[in-house]
Design goal:
By secondary structure, the protein is mostly helical. Helices cover about 65% and strands about 0% of the residues.
């Protein structure tokens, strides 16, 4: 049984996304925002491990390097991924238009970012439980409260953000290649 709201979304996507502008604008915003976030994490790792700055907090500094900011950011990134997914008509007939490899990349990115947000839900709980302490462990982080501490937080989250970004970049390039060949999915 199909919900009326799903029909409305599909109808609106078909009308507003016919030339693909909405998809490209949202997708580019997603890539730009997450790209900057990845650079922020690279900077943090360079500061801590190569420049020996013990509390290196990236480009934006310690104001942005607290768990509520990371939680809100990762929830927003997941929302942008969902928006791209819906605008592309996935998992409906959009799979046929964009191809299985692009669909697989976006589905993986969406699933992985869902896990990453779960990680930040756990970190938020720990953040509150530990008295608003900066640098909680989450699920796999080697820091206070870490459930299965596997790696230092800066390295772990650099990895999370790279894994949650690079497949989206490749998917966008694949969509652009279809556009360039004149077989635009949008």
């Amino acid at each position: 049984m199909e919900l009326a709201s799903a029909r409305v979304v599909r109808r609106r996507v078909g009308r507003e996304g016919a030339d693909g502008r909405n998809v490209y604008v949202v997708f580019l915003a997603l890539l730009a925002i997450q790209g900057f976030h990845l650079v922020e994490h690279v900077t943090q790792v360079v500061q801590r491990y190569f420049l020996a700055i013990p509390n290196g907090s990236g480009i934006l500094g310690s104001v942005a390097d607290i768990e509520p900011v990371h939680f809100i950011y990762n929830a927003g990134y997941l929302a942008l991924l969902v928006a791209v997914y819906v605008l592309l008509g996935l998992p409906g007939d959009g799979v046929r238009r964009i191809g299985r490899p692009t669909f697989a990349l976006l589905t993986f990115t969406l699933a992985f970012q869902s896990f990453h947000l779960l990680e930040h839900v756990v970190k938020m709980i720990q953040y509150v439980q530990l008295g608003l302490q900066k640098g909680t462990g989450g699920i796999f982080g080697a820091a206070p409260g870490g459930l299965v501490p596997l790696a230092p937080i800066p390295l772990l989250h650099l990895g999370y953000n790279a894994v949650g970004y690079l497949p989206a970049v490749v998917a966008f390039v694949l969509i652009l290649r279809l556009q360039h060949r004149g077989t635009s999915p949008l």
